[in-house]
Amino acid sequence: MNENPWMIPLSFFLGHLLSVTAACLILITASFVISAEKTSGTVVQAYRLPNHRITHLTIEFPVNDEKIRFSQPINFYSTRLGQSIPVLYSRGDPKNARISLFWSLWNGAIVCSFLALLCYAVASSARQNNEPVKFPSAGFLIFNDIRARVIAYIIVAAIVSLWSCSH
Fold first, then answer.
1. What confidence tier does 86 reach under pLDDT thresholds 50, 70, 90?
2. First-residue to last-residue Cα distance in the chain
3. At 80, phi and psi to the nearest 5?
4. Which of 1, 22, 120, 163 could tie 113 with a disulfide, CB 3.0–4.6 Å?
């Protein structure tokens, strides 16, 4: 008998939400990478808070006759001042720039995809190990169907819209 009737639908819902988030992040990043200009920047400042693995870099790169600076946190990469680092920047807005390293570009999509797979594995495992699930009586609470995908898509679309409007 299923001891927790919420585990399977919640796992499916979170899996759908994370899948849609990963898809949005992949599309946003791919769009940026395809349309961006590539150049080389120089590390002008690097600092790390005590007991943290994330280094915050300030990169400077030339565009036309102007020097553009931007900051970005980066993980798993050791740097020193004056080091050259690859940069991608938007043609229309050079201040919209990112470090052109695989993990710094794609980490959000990779983490969301992995967590989605983990949620699906939990739901699948719980479904196989239990008798048929007795869900709560309210029909809309069953999140392992198309409604979960629609709800997840709406939530992620709202978050992405708000995020893109604020930047």
1. very high
2. 49
3. -140, 155
4. 22
